[in-house]
Design goal:
mainly alpha; single chain; 6% strand; three-stranded mixed sheet; Four Helix Bundle (Hemerythrin (Met), subunit A); 3 strands; 157 residues; globular
């Protein structure tokens, strides 16, 4: 999928999910929805972390010939940021708007940099293009888990 199409699909997913998430009450957002007891608030915190980390990856890989980026300690980040205590509407608004900005960034990724090798933590290198496509897959997966998009929804990628 080219970056413009990926960007357009990300915007479509965000708009659809934001409408659903806006109907979730603060109380409902605290209820465990995933194995291990994660709530919608914690999943949204995780998706904000994903946006933040991937924003850095996208820009840094576009400016270099290769990227080495640290891994992600999701439980540590959730604990330190106290996602469960954050206001639900704040989490949804931050997530939605950050992703709208990421759609803009993805649409403007330099074509010449899409094959830049990126190593995250100890994983095998992948390309910048793969990171951008995988970002959307990851997002849709977690949105499906919390009922914000149909389970099993995929994108044309």
């Amino acid at each position: 999928m080219d970056t413009l199409a990926l960007s357009t699909e990300l915007l479509r997913v965000v708009d659809a999910a934001e409408a659903v998430l806006g109907r979730v009450s603060g109380e409902e957002s605290r209820a465990p929805v995933l194995a291990g007891g994660w709530s919608r608030r914690q999943v949204m915190g995780h998706l904000i972390d994903s946006a933040s980390n991937n924003h850095q990856r996208f820009v840094r890989a576009s400016l270099q010939d290769s990227l080495e980026f640290p891994g992600y300690d999701q439980n540590g980040w959730a604990r330190v940021q106290a996602d469960e205590e954050a206001d639900w509407s704040l989490l949804v608004a931050l997530w939605a708007n950050y992703n709208r900005y990421l759609a803009h960034v993805i649409a403007h990724l330099p074509t010449a940099k899409l094959e830049v090798p990126c190593r995250i933590g100890g994983d095998e290198p992948v390309t910048l293009k793969f990171l951008a496509e995988d970002y959307l897959r990851h997002l849709v997966h977690h949105l499906g888990q919390i009922g914000a998009v149909p389970v099993g929804q995929s994108f044309a990628g």
